[in-house]
Amino acid sequence: MNMNKISVIGAGIMGRGIAYVASLSGFQVTLHDISEAAAGRARQYIEKEMKKSVEKGFIKTREMEEAMINIEYTTDLVKAGENADLVIEAILEIIDLKIDLFKQLDEICPPHTIFATNTSTMSPTEIGAQTSRPAKFIAMHFFNPVHKMKLIEIIRGLDTSEETVQTVQEVGRRMGKETVEVNDFPGFVTSRMNSLIGNEAINMLMEGVASAEDIDKAVKLGLNHPMGPLEMVDLVGLDTRLRNMEHLYKTLGEKYRPSPLIVKYVKAGRLGRKNGIGFYKYE
């Protein structure tokens, strides 16, 4: 199946990153958000990152210009879905919202359209079963920042067809990514590992084992991680990580119980980089 037109639903951190990479890879991209302000911020971010990439020599000016032409921004879901070959959803990690969105898209999109959720923990089987096309439903778990991270986890639902798996693997290759195929199980591979490491780091901070800076430094220099676990949670967003942990706690049990400290920070509005304060403060 030829994949030329990709619609990305959700213009937040992950959605705009996916749109950025897809447009540079030659796909025609429609980036949708219900908020005009969010779509506008996404446009500013993408154009700024592309110009920085030109300045650093990662891409040529011609590539940037072609990529910018490849992206269309809209708040109209019908416009986003009616001609899409592939829809990638990147909205909040709330399963009812995802199901409602895909039910709408199921009515809008052509029969050949493949649906992919960018969920980091939730079941593509469960979401896809609410549509008329579970064989064309899959999870494509990208990583932040999308233009730097090489991996896409591809999670096959119970009814996902082999053609769908192979098609999204090829999309990943066109984007310059490596892919791993994972069976549908809560948290997949990376989110289960990341959640445990991050949650233990938060507990150590709460217990006074070390400062946030020294916990992250120990993990980076002692375990050779490129980013400390508390820095990672700030990047992902404390609210997002908490939702992930709550889902894993519900589905996998006690070892995924969220640290009381992350619950307290989210209640206090400390969400990480997205609003300037989490485990660290940001400009």
Key descriptive features of the protein:
283 residues; alpha/beta; Rossmann fold; N-(1-d-carboxylethyl)-l-norvaline Dehydrogenase, domain 2; 2 domains; eight-stranded mixed sheet; 12 helices; 8 strands; 14% strand; 6PGD_dom2; 3-OHacyl-CoA_DH; 3-hydroxyacyl-CoA dehydrogenase
Give a structural overview.
- The protein has 283 residues and is of the alpha/beta class.
- The protein has two domains: 179 residues, NAD(P)-binding Rossmann-like Domain (Rossmann fold, 3-Layer(aba) Sandwich), CATH 3.40.50; 85 residues, N-(1-d-carboxylethyl)-l-norvaline Dehydrogenase, domain 2 (Orthogonal Bundle).
- It is 49% helix and 14% strand.
- The chain contains twelve helices and eight strands.
- The chain has an eight-stranded mixed beta sheet.
- α1 crosses α2, α8 packs across α10 and α8 crosses α11.
- The chain is globular.
- The chain starts with a strand and ends in a 16-residue tail after the last helix.
- Pathway: Lipid metabolism; butanoate metabolism.
- GO terms for molecular function: 3-hydroxybutyryl-CoA dehydrogenase activity; NAD+ binding.
- InterPro entries: 3-OHacyl-CoA_DH, 3-OHacyl-CoA_DH_NAD-bd, 3HC_DH_C, 6-PGluconate_DH-like_C_sf, 6PGD_dom2, NAD(P)-bd_dom_sf.
- One of its GO terms (biological process) is fatty acid beta-oxidation.
- Keywords: NAD, Oxidoreductase.
